[in-house]
Here is the input.
Amino acid sequence: AQSVAQPEDQVNVAEGNPLTVKCTYSVSGNPYLFWYVQYPNRGLQFLLKYITGDNLVKGSYGFEAEFNKSQTSFHLKKPSALVSDSALYFCAVRDINTGGFKTIFGAGTRLFVKA
Amino acid sequence: NAGVTQTPKFRVLKTGQSMTLLCAQDMNHEYMYWYRQDPGMGLRLIHYSVGEGTTAKGEVPDGYNVSRLKKQNFLLGLESAAPSQTSVYFCASSSGTGNTGELFFGEGSRLTVL
Here is the structure.
């Protein structure tokens, strides 16, 4: 079965410092990977995705993610964190075993950026 | 451009009562989904639809029914609500571009079952 894991419930970082939110995946075949962000009392918003090509994917709000096939990881990164980046972040994988219709989400990582 | 709209945003039910959550999207998307979000569990798929008139079960379908009579609408029904169905429900849609399309989410519907 396809799955994603986010090993950290919470990540704390000081404003201006780089941040990393970790994600590992387990899929059969080529992975289609996504990151979403959820601000308080809001729906999830798409940040970026990896389908194929360059291992470094750039997305919204200055975020990027690095796909590493050998480590089966897709970590979310940002060079300089902002207080406004504080939110809940979800890694997700498209379940291609069921025709790609379903997206499987990790449990989420809460990011706190301190001023 | 409204995107994905869910109604109602909040609802309190008593055990055994029924209700319907409505999701509407104006992006002409083929695929629509209903998820529930519970603390520490991420999002779990309840039901989904790959086109008008079609529905399919997700991970946690028990106690829920859905209908997709029009392409732009996806209804989630609870026939006899239970406290275990207290949750935040999210509707999402995506375009019919195979496996690569991202999801667009509504703002959520918070349901409390007493």
Remarks:
- DSSP finds no helices and twelve strands in chain A.
- Chain A has a mean pLDDT of 92.
- Chain A touches chain B at residues 9, 32, 34, 36, 41-46, 49, 51, 90, 94, 96, 100-108 (CB under 8 Å).
